[in-house]
Design a protein that fits this description.
Layout: H1 3-7, H2 27-36, H3 39-42, H4 63-82, H5 86-94, H6 100-109, H7 118-131, H8 141-152, H9 166-171, H10 214-221, H11 234-257, H12 263-281, H13 295-307, H14 314-333, H15 341-359, E1 363-364, E2 375-376, H16 379-397, H17 400-424, H18 435-454, H19 464-481, H20 485-495, H21 502-505
Antiparallel strand pairs: 1-2
Helix pairs in contact: 2-6, 4-6, 4-11, 6-11, 7-17, 11-15, 11-16, 12-13, 12-14, 14-16, 17-19, 17-20, 18-19
Length: 509
Amino acid sequence: MYPSQKSHQHGGRERDIAEPIRAGEDEFRVDIERIRFSPYFSRLSAVTQVIPQAGAGTVIHNRLTHSLKVSAVARSIAIGLRNADADTVALVAELGGCDPVVVQAAAAAHDLGHPPFGHLGEQELDRVARRSLGLPDGFEGNAQTFRILTALDSCDATARGLNLTRAVRAGVLKYPWARDEWADRQLPARELPRGAGDVAGTGAAKFSCYDIEAAEMRDVLSVFPHIAAHQQTLECSVMDVADDIAYAVHDLDDFYRAGVLQYTSVSAELRAWLNHSRTLTDIPDKHLDLRRPGHALERTWRRLLAKDPWIADAQAFRDSVQRVEHDLVEGLLAVPYDGGLEADRAVTGFTRRWIDRLQSSVVVQRRPHVRSGHLRLGDAAWHDVVVLKFVHSRFVLDRSDLAVYQRGQTRIISSLALGFRDWLNDPVDAARAPRRLLDSVQAATEEYRALRNVDPARFGPAGHGEVERLGQARAIVDYIASFTDAQAVSVNSLLTGTAEGIWELGRGL
């Protein structure tokens, strides 16, 4: 019997609602199939990962293809842990095990909560949720994922949630706290868990549950006694690392095929920093000019050193810049992608080398640093991912043409939220709002009512009225977050009176 199986015999395999056990059926396999057959999962094929597929075609990842690749990398890491040295195998068992199917399920589910339009859509939905709808904990993609798995989706066993095992539900808790848990902490970022730094005094920037799911999160984590507070389970750490690897490598693969990454600009930045890093060190932060080659990478190094001095190392960072410059810039980008077989082989070879290198570097720790997890990338690979993500951010996300497109998309998110809010509060026409939205308002209101019964101080003197207001606001956010990119555009055109072909656009509301 594998250690992962033994460690999950008690607790991790439990579900909230008991179900009949079918002969030869594995609990975790049931979980992964429920996730894969979920409409929230299939929706991801039409949700932006980083840049939209429109105009770039199938060479660009969407959230579904990204999730499938994260799942494959996570499974490889988990299998590698089974074949590790005896000390590592024993430590894995002590920490609660690492079942390959659990990490596959967690990886498949990890992006379910992402709204339309990528990360900028997430930021805008959080902003409008807090400022316009008055939701204290706003919106966060990871918290929305946990909410989908535990409340919004359904299965044959329960109408609310997928009734997954605790191990799989714990596997998606990348930031195992609620937003307000860190609202009053006055610690520098380097002393906080990754993601716990606040956003304009509102609490944690990243979190994995809303207030109404906080009790369930605590229950899920209770079956992992060797995992400290604010730490991911080992299986969640595997998923998180796999996500980093896929994001850093596969997305660069996308941008090269789409012609977005250009040899000249990337080479100039990396070479300038390698050749002049000593000179750049003497430039004060405020005088770094991001228009000049090398300056943006220097700023990245300084931020890295400020946030993660526990692992950031000047020589390791330089070595990583040299590796990326040699293999990505001079090796891959030096030859423009022409769509031919030779070009495809070059991309595949680059991707395979880097995936193998990164996933084979992982180490398991009994007592991780507060900004790390029980499983993390080795020091050199950790720096490699930082540099690859820099290339991604600097030469793709920071492009002005992408920014113009994304700013237009954020207006759609805001328009939808305000439009649905006004509709639900229209005393004459509220009853004609979409059935799914009205049902969601009722269900979310019941959730807030249950929370008020156990924690009335959270709601203040407004009491009943506050419960109804929060339920409506959360339902609007749930509804918008469930749209694909195209649905968001078409529904907004309906709400704003600019649509044609009403019956086609209105389907599925």
